[in-house]
Amino acid sequence: MQFIREVFMKIRGILAVLSVSSALLAAEPRQTPPPQRIAPPIIRSGESAVELKVASTGSWSETETPGISNRADTPPGMLAAKLAEEHMLCRWMPSPDSASAIRGADLIDAVLSADESLLIIAERIGGAGKPNSARLVFLNLFNGKIIGGFELSRRRIASIALIPGQPEKLLAVQTAQPEFGSADALLVIDLRRKKIAAESEATPGRVRSVATDGEQLWFTAAKEPGYVLTLPLASPRGTPERIRCKTAAPRIL
Fold first, then answer.
1. CA distance from start to end of the chain
2. What pTM value is reported for the model?
3. Could you say which DSSP state residue 123 is in?
4. Could you give the CA distance from residue 253 to residue 83 in angstroms, rounded to a whole number?
5. pLDDT at 44
6. What is the DSSP letter of 177?
7. pLDDT score of 40
8. Across the chain, what does the average pLDDT equal?
9. Mean per-residue pLDDT for 193-220?
10. What are phi and psi of 16, to 5 degrees?
């Protein structure tokens, strides 16, 4: 418990200085190249056409900085050491939570890696009630540095979870954005390659709960009351098997 308290005190300290991180270096930051995107949808109204976009909230930049080591003080073999972008100063200003009266950071979820070296934070971009993207940010808990991250363009993420036996991948629940042609679904995200490695077919409504043992997925969905659905993690594109439950609204913990 003492270790956990120390970890979260460290996290609180890190987040407190994010807003002034731009003063760390005088060098002009190099903006991270945007992820590959397909053409945004066009909404037509009479004779006019409006391109639907995700509002740019928060900020992310990377500056090549020789001499900076994001692996400093991190034992080799730890996930934080494996995912650290060396000689790169990462600056992050979280998106403000427009739905909150205190205007905190618009964070979706966070998970601690199995080896307790890395905190992975999921941020919502675009604001509440609007088209969204998501950003994953990596915090090295050995040295307190932001060591990398990337954007999931036009993906509305509801939650993230670790995958047992696959430390460099995450399981994410996606919420539908019809304006972008995306459905409620489950995603497997490759943290090293910074991309979606696998995606399920549209789930029967919003995913209410999900779990995995590293080989199989189990989840419940809004339009399948009374059932747990299961898919193989390696190939989640198929039709899920349905397992009847005695309760009308099962949840997987």
1. 22
2. 0.81
3. E
4. 28
5. 53
6. B
7. 57
8. 86
9. 98
10. -70, -25
Tokens of residue 90, six digits: 């990462």
Which residue(s) pair with 41 in the sheet? none
Q: How confident is the model at residue 1 (pLDDT cuts 50, 70, 90)?
A: very low
Question: Phi first, then psi: what are they for 20, rounded to 5°?
Answer: -115, 15
Rounded to whole angstroms, how far apart are CA atoms 63 and 87? 8
d(CA 91, CA 21): 7
Asked if 134 and 180 touch (Cβ cutoff 8 Å), the reply is no
Classify 105 as helix, strand or coil. Answer: strand
Percent of the chain scoring above 90 in pLDDT = 75
Q: How far apart are CA 22 and CA 112, in angstroms?
A: 26
Task: Residue 148: name the closest of 170, 116, 114, 119 by CA.
Answer: 119
Strand segments (E) across the chain: 42-45, 48-51, 59-64, 88-93, 107-112, 118-125, 133-140, 146-152, 156-162, 169-175, 185-190, 195-199, 207-212, 216-221, 227-232, 241-244
Residue entry with tokens 């950071």 = 105
Residue/partner pairs of 73-76 with CB below 8 Å, 24 or more apart: 73/142, 73/143, 74/117, 74/140, 74/142, 74/143, 75/117, 75/142
**Residue the block writes with tokens 């995995």:** 212
Which of 80-84, 94-98, 161-165, 231-235 bottoms out in mean pLDDT, i.e. has the lowest?
Answer: 94-98
Query: For residue 155, is pLDDT > 90?
Result: yes
Instruction: Report the SS3 class of residue 115.
Output: coil
How far is the C-alpha of 84 from the C-alpha of 97, rounded, in Å? 28
Task: Give CA–CA dist 40/53, Å, rounded.
Answer: 7
The pair of structure tokens assigned to 154 is 């036009």
* pLDDT tens for each residue of 98-120: 777 777 899 999 999 999 999 99
